[in-house]
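Here is the promised in-class demo. Please do not try to memorize the tokens; focus on the logic of going from shape to residues.
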């Protein structure tokens, strides 16, 4: 997939979160259904960001794309909370940053699992696959040949 197309959802997510963080009333007057519902919104928003970042970083070799995506989005969440301190009517909250980081981690891990499933690889890399980079880019020589067993070592 073209790098620009892969990065577009993440770039759009970054722009939308920055814009939303600049709003004095980010809910737009909507009453949230329960106390701390904003934490669930933070979690879901950053889960989407973690998945989009994993897609954008799909060609990385080291560190793994999912961990880099989670760290990048968690750092963006902290920066977002700092940015809110300059917005009238808003204040930074550590609990929001925690919900952001947790959502980013879950989104990146789920996107990694989906990429591995699509590529036909195991959900967790074994020692032989750990350095092969993005599972979506694995070639046929990376996969075992069906019906062909290795000779036992004597």
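The designed amino acids, position by position:
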């Amino acid at each position: 997939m073209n790098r620009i197309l892969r990065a577009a959802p993440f770039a759009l997510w970054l722009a939308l979160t920055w814009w939303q963080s600049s709003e004095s009333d980010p809910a737009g007057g909507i009453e949230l259904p329960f106390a701390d519902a904003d934490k669930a919104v933070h979690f879901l928003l950053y889960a989407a960001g973690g998945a989009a970042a994993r897609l954008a970083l799909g060609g990385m070799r080291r560190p793994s794309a999912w961990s880099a995506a989670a760290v990048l989005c968690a750092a963006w969440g902290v920066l977002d909370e700092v940015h809110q301190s300059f917005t009238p009517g808003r204040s930074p909250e550590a609990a929001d940053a925690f919900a952001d980081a947790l959502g980013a981690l879950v989104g990146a891990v789920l996107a990694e699992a989906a990429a591995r499933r699509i590529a036909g690889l195991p959900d967790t890399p074994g020692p032989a696959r750990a350095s092969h980079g993005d599972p979506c880019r694995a070639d046929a020589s990376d996969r075992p040949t069906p019906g062909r067993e290795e000779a036992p070592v004597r």
